[in-house]
Sequence to fold (237 residues):
Amino acid sequence: MSYEAVCFDLDDTLYPYPPCNEAGKRAALAALRDRGYEMDRETFDELYATARREAKRETAGTAASHDRHIYFKRALRRHAGECDAATALAVGDAYWDGYAEEMELCDGVESVFDALAAAGTDVAVVTNLTTRVQLRKLVRLGVDDRIDRLVTSEEVGREKPSALPFTTALAEFDCRPSEALMVGDNVGADIGGANAVGMDTALFVAGGEAPGEDELRGPRRPDHRLDAFADLTEVAP
Fold:
């Protein structure tokens, strides 16, 4: 089938997320130690996980729920009982520096983008998180000049699976949902959200385990499942 536009999730779709997240955590822990906070990895992981849960609970549905600087600000307050703004900033920056160093495009992404460009198909990235971080990732991956539109949850004020990120991208392309494909790794946010607005969907998980059949039911069932990113050329354009 030919599409007027293809929308991609970013994290764990265009590149594997788990090794980047691990590299970011290692860099953050090193930055904490450099600033005088002596702690082992187990303590760090417990603080990080607790702060992450709190942030996601209290800022659910917004880009802030993913903000690592918020996680570290809360973790430091829990650990030291005070606000250490300079360290929270340094550790959050260290996380993203370490994360970015580990980023690599999935095999097949460039060839798929070449095929979409040759077909005149519009390309968007529709993603949950803050705009600055996602811009940095696109530049780091070297695909910033291959993307026609970036739509972030921070920008539109709602997270996937809300319809708003998807309809914003479609409106910018003047494209009907039936003329567009969404490619992503998350069956709720990407597949369920895009299915709900009438887009075709393709599931691809760059890192970690793909969801089982029991998770791919009803509104979360993708139209296509990709074993490799390059398989997308058999679906679009």
